[in-house]
Sequence to fold (350 residues):
Amino acid sequence: MLRKGFLLISALLFCLQVQAYPGFRQITLSDRKGEPLEVAVWYPAPSTGITENIGDNPAFVGVTVIRNAFPIQGEHPLLVISHGYNGNWRNLSWIAEAMAMQGYIVAAPDHPGTTTFNQAPADAKRLWRRPRDITRVIDFAINSPGLFGKTDKNRIAVLGHSLGGWTVMSLAGARFDPARFLHDCRQQPERGDCKLTEKLGIDEKVAQKKLSADNRDTRIRAAVSLDTGLAPGFTPHSLLDINIPVLVLAARNDRLAELPFRQESGYIAARMDPRRVQFEVIDGATHFSFMQVCKTGAEELIDEESPGDSIVCRDGNGASRADIHKKLVREISLFLNSSLNYHVPADETK
Fold:
C-alpha cells in the first residue's frame, strides 16, 4: 500500500476554490482516417462570463460552467477521463468540475461504440481503440494552449470508471490477455463484464491481438481507477511492472452491476507493487454511485424510457450519492495533487 500519509495531507490543502466556475468547450477531433471523437473540456478560466448548466436533465444533476471562456494563463496539470460502458462525459462531470476548479485542464471523450450516443456494434467491438482515444486527447490538449491553457507535460493523469477503469489501467501499463479473461469468465459466467464478451469483441480472434497490445503512455504520471471492469484479464506481471502511482477505488455494494470488487478492483490492487497502489472500498457505494447525482423522481423517468435502467440511480441503503461524491472528490484530489507534486496556486484557494 502507498503510505497513508499522502492522503493525510493537511485538510487546508482541500479548502479550494479556483474560480467561481470553470471554462468549458466541446470539441470534435478528427484523424487521418476521418474518425471523429467528441470531447468535453473543462479548464481554469476567469470568473467573469455568462454561466451555463451542462449535463443537467430531468433525471441527472449537471454542473455550472462558462462556455468558451478564455483560459487562465500559465501551465496547468491535465486530467483525462474515460467513461464507462455506454456512458458519456456527463457521467463524471462532478469530478471534472472539481478538478478544473483546482487548476486542472480536464478532458473527457465519448468513446465510439461504447458511449450513450454511439452504440454501433462494429465500433463496440473495437475495444482496443479506447486507450488510443485517450492518447489522442492528450496530444490535442498539449497542442491547444490557446483553447484551454498550457498543459504541464510533467503533470498528466488519467481517471476512468468501469470500462473506463480498464482503459486507464491499460494506459498505465497493464497488459490485457483476452484468453486469460475468457478462461476466468468460464469460471464466473454470471459476472457483469463476462456478459459483455461478445459485444466487446473479446472472443474474436481478429481483435485479440490488438487487445493484447502495449498501450502504455509514458507521459501519464498517475492513474485513478473507479470500480474497474475486465480486470481479471490483466496479466499479473504487467500489473506488477506499473511504475506510476495508482488509486484504486471500488464499490462496497457490487450486486447491482455484478462486478464483485474482490475479483475486479481487488485483483488489480493485490497484484500491483504495494508501493505504487492505494486501494479502498467505498462504503455505501454501488457501481453506479460514481455517476452523476440523480434527481428526485429520476428512477421513474428512466424506467419509462428504458425499463430496468433505473438501477443507475441506486446507492447503498441509507447512502447519499452527494456525500459519496464529496468523499471521492477529497480523496482523488489529494491523491492527484500529491502524486503530481502539484500545489494549487494561492490565488485559486479560499
